[in-house]
TrEMBL record:
Alphabetized Gene3D superfamilies for the sequence: MFS general substrate transporter like domains
GO molecular function: transmembrane transporter activity
Transmembrane segments: 55-77, 97-123, 144-166, 172-195, 216-238, 258-277, 284-302, 308-332, 344-362, 374-392
One of the Pfam families matching this protein, by short name: MFS_1
Superkingdom assignment: Bacteria
Gene Ontology cellular-component annotations: plasma membrane
Keywords: Membrane, Transmembrane, Transmembrane helix
Keyword flag Membrane: yes
Major facilitator superfamily (MFS) profile domain location: 19-398
Keyword Translocase: no
This protein's name: FSR family fosmidomycin resistance protein-like MFS transporter
Length: 401
């Protein structure tokens, strides 16, 4: 894949959009493989006789691994870009899936989940940077297109689990590890394009890293965004990790039907991410964050009391509205701290995983002691913390644009 430097603007734009699409597909591959872990929880819970606490700890192991390493990798690659680190993420995830497929103990499951987390930690900061470089200034669009691939991957994982892994057993996870091979090939090509852009940029002035606001206000705004991300991802973790158990227990549906309901939620989340980016480019990231975080509150509060039909409807509505904020949060944070794309991607993608993982572990304890329906009643109040959005500053117009 080559960089076009002397073509017309239309050709150049088409080339960069095609690159973002490739990176988005790689994100889809990456998150399909990651979502398989939570998608096969009902299977491994039975196979290894696990309780909800152990299920939560599996999620925490995966997500904390990614959370701790992603910001570190982002900071390092901001200073020393590593284009060819991208294919290594597929290698790590491939190894983790093989371990999950052939695990003979809970310990091996933990090691496999940590390797999948490592793959995530390597992938997200550099892939997010590639999407921004190729954006042509349409940062919200690029970030949402990049992110929607991941959301579709997360949505496809439960379907693959329902129709391939559940009928054929845990060892069939190894069949899906072939996806990592396709990811490796595509990311190798992306890395070549990225490396060429890095060589070209050496002859250009360094990116402006002047803060748009006083340092104290920037740090406070980043803290607010982190807290909003925490709220959002603990709630999302409650659904991605335990939604199948919730609908099986409350409505007595089959495991496959529960996986289909999870697919509805995750598919709606993917649609929300894609919608949120372009709206953020037009209306501003701050507006999208306001709408998403506060708009979901009434629907989240209704979820624990809904029947089966309305649970499906509410899951779709919540998925669309709540997920529309993520690309806006990342873009807003990148504008607050210019020139630190990798660090911001690492913090927010990584913190998203970490917060969700800690939340999943705590919710697992509550599910064991109080029941899964109590967990969903408790989580329905989490979006109320979205009132923190009022504390976000308005960026100067030239930065917000």
């Amino acid at each position: 894949m080559t960089t076009v430097t002397s073509q017309s603007p239309k050709i150049t734009e088409a080339t960069t959009v095609s690159l973002i699409v490739v990176v988005s597909f790689c994100h889809m591959f990456n998150d399909i493989m990651q979502s398989l872990l939570s998608a096969i929880y009902p299977l491994i819970k039975t196979n290894y006789n696990l309780d909800f606490r152990q299920i939560g700890f599996l999620t925490m192991t995966f997500q904390i691994t990614a959370s701790l390493l992603q910001p570190v990798i982002g900071i390092i690659t901001d200073r020393w870009p590593m284009p060819y680190s991208l294919p290594l993420s597929s290698v790590s995830t491939f190894t983790g899936l093989l371990l999950l497929a052939n695990a003979d103990s809970y310990t091996v499951l933990l090691i496999g989940s940590s390797l999948i987390g490592l793959g995530s930690a390597i992938f997200h900061p550099e892939a997010s940077r590639v999407a921004r470089i190729a954006s042509g200034g349409r940062h919200g669009f690029a970030q949402s297109l990049f992110q929607v691939g991941g959301n579709f991957g997360s949505a496809l994982g439960p379907l693959l689990a329902a129709f391939i892994i559940l009928p054929n057993g845990q060892s069939s996870v190894a069949w899906l590890a072939i996806i990592a091979v396709f990811g490796f090939i595509a990311l190798t090509r992306v890395s070549r394009w990225y490396a060429e852009k890095q060589r070209q940029s050496k002859n250009k002035p360094a990116a402006d890293r002047t803060l748009p606001l006083p340092q104290g206000r920037v740090m406070f705004a980043i803290l607010v965004l982190v807290l909003l991300t925490t709220t959002k991802n603990v709630y999302m973790a409650s659904i991605s990790s335990y939604f199948t158990f919730f609908v099986i227990e409350k409505f007595d549906v089959t495991v496959q039907n529960a996986q289909l309901m999870l697919f509805l939620f995750l598919g709606a989340s993917a649609a929300g991410v894609f919608i949120g980016g372009p709206i953020g480019d037009r209306m501003g990231a701050r507006f999208v964050i306001w709408f998403s975080i506060l708009g979901v509150i009434p629907f989240a509060l209704m979820m624990p009391y809904a029947n089966l039909f309305w649970t499906c409807v509410l899951a779709v509505v919540i998925g669309i509205i709540f997920s529309s904020a993520f690309s806006a949060i990342v873009v807003f944070a990148q504008e607050l701290v210019p020139g630190r794309v990798g660090m911001i991607a690492g913090v927010f993608f990584g913190f998203a995983f970490g917060a969700g993982g800690i939340g999943a572990a705590l919710l697992g304890d509550f599910a064991d002691s109080h029941g899964i329906e109590y967990v969903y009643w408790l989580c329905s109040f989490l979006p109320l913390l979205g009132v923190l959005t009022i504390l976000l500053p308005r960026l100067p117009k030239k930065m917000a644009a």
